[in-house]
Amino acid sequence: MPPAFTEAERTRIIERLLDTATRLFAAQGLRKTTLAELTAPAGIAKTSLYAFFSSKEDLYFEAALRQTDQVRQRVIDHGLRLGADPGDALRRFLHATLAELDANPLYRRLMEHPEEMTAVAERLTPQRMSAAGGGPMAEVLAFLSQHTDTDPQVALGVLRAVLLTPLHRDHLGVDLYPAIVDRLVDAVVEGIIAK
User: Fold this and answer.
1) What is the pTM of this model?
2) Which of 55, 56, 96, 145 satisfies CB 3.0 to 4.6 Å to 79 for a cystine?
3) 20, pLDDT greater than 60
C-alpha cells in the first residue's frame, strides 16, 4: 500500500509530477518517458505514481489539460474573439494557434505525434476524457457553424491541415515560411468564411 501523504505533500508532488511530465513528454514522448524519470524529481517511488494518477497516460492527459485554459485564452480569447469580422477572427485564431505550436513544446509534440493522444485516450475512461470539454477546437467548430457555407467538420479539417504547416517549415524554407503561412492563412480564410 502506498504511503499516506499529507495534503501539502500531495500538492507539492502533483505539481512536481506535472512539471516533470510536461517537460519530458514534450521532449521524449509518452513511450520513451519512464516512470522512474517521472517520479524521481518528485521524490516518490515509481509505484507511488498511482496514488496520484491512474496511469502514465492519465498524467500526460493532465499535463496537457493543465495548459488548456492558457491556450484557450491565447488562441480563442485573444484570437478568435477579438476579430473585427469573421474573416479577421479566423485569421487571428490561425496565427495565434501557429504561434502557440511554436512556443508550446507539449502542444507541438501532440501535433507532431497524434498517436500519443490516441494512446492516452485509449487508457482513459470516457468520464475522464470529458474533462477536456472539447478544448478550443469545440469553440472553433461552433464559430464555423455560424460563419461558413462549407460543412463545419470539413472546414475544421482544413484548419487542422493549416496547423500542420509548421511540421514542414524546413521543407518550405525557413526564410520563406512566414510569407507562405500568411498567404496560406489568407487563402484558407477566404475559402471558408461565407460571403
Assistant:
1) 0.79
2) 96
3) yes
